[in-house]
Fold:
Amino acid sequence: MKKQPQTSLPHGTGSIARSGHFGQVTWPVLPEAAATAAAVSADCSECMACVRQCAFLDRHGTPKALADAYTANPQKIRDLAFECSLCGLCTTICPDKADPAAMFLALRRESTAAGETLLPRYKPILGYEKLGNSPFFSCYSLPEGCDTIFFPGCTLPGKHPHATAELFARIRRSIPAAGIVLDCCNKPSHDLGRQDHFETMFGELLDFLMTNGVRTVLVACPNCHKVFSQYAPAMRVRTVYEFLHENGLPDAITQSGTFPGAAAPTVDSVAEAGADMTVTVHDPCPLRDESGTHDAVRALLDSKGIAIVEMRHNRKKTLCCGEGGTVAMRANDLALAWGEARSREAQGKTVVTYCAGCANYLGRHMKTMHILDMLFPQPETAKAAPPAGLRPYFERLKFKRYIKSLPAAVYRERPMRVGERFVSMPRLDSKKMLAAASVAAAALLWLLISHFA
Structure:
């Protein structure tokens, strides 16, 4: 096995781009807040269709009213935009084809650029993102001839490590040269309006992949799918659920992807993941327009003999789980309102979703399972308590150690961003990495306690 250090960026210096271009990456043109507000003001007829289904709009007014108020008091409306979950339901159901979701995101960007956003309020989620980008938790493993990678996202390897490992093993049975990348797509910064930071961090990630010949990304996280779809136009982006539907599930779990100490799925028993089970499906809002993924998920459940009773809001018209837009750190009651609405629609049924974040957030309101834990259930003899507290961080480290044991032609850990440059850190052995991660996890726990105390 040949492991190589970080590949040089095409522009040579490793400096941070500021012009919407990073190496091979060119960003789409983003709408300005004033332009989006003017468009919403012109398009919205105040029919109330969106207001009736959104606690945020019910509290603060119609999209047109908010767009018009932006002209008179822009700072106030920019501030209110952080109470919107950015789920896009308003845009989807608008009969006038207005796009309030784009307006609220543009308002957030303008607020952050103006220095108005109270970023310390979001320390927990930004700290989580920073750990995901760090050399301690990141890992790029690309075999010889790799043009396809599995990008599981931040949460899945920590909360569902067994299913993640089995899924990657399944991918490699169909695509032997498939690689894997453990990193954060920086969606939290994107949604908080930190556009410059987002473009820098995601740009460095994407530039490395393209430089090394990667052209297809299989994602498990809906947020990662949205980021890659919007900001990586040269990439083919697909969900692992579409891949599994097209390539088939294994007849039995082989354990070929299992690594020592894998945590159990969040099910009461392996039998629950079998036939004669009736569930309802929560479609994650970042994938509301991906009908192919909606169909694939339902077909996969059907193949396991699992019956589905749909909620009123499903597929394209799905509701946010409550985690979207980091609203809980600004207006927790609005975030809870989404989860409570979902609970009412589930009517006591087990909820199956295909987003690790949704599974975690909805799990506070009702019994919720990630579909991968149903497709790749862990054997009864290996069951343990689901990861919680600091344990998901250690599961991520164990998963990274498992990935490092696989043959790779190109391997790296994400370089640290220091000022205007990216700096590669010295390679740490497993014991030192685990000790350093323990300190980082303890620091994150302190941030969470200090924030919510």
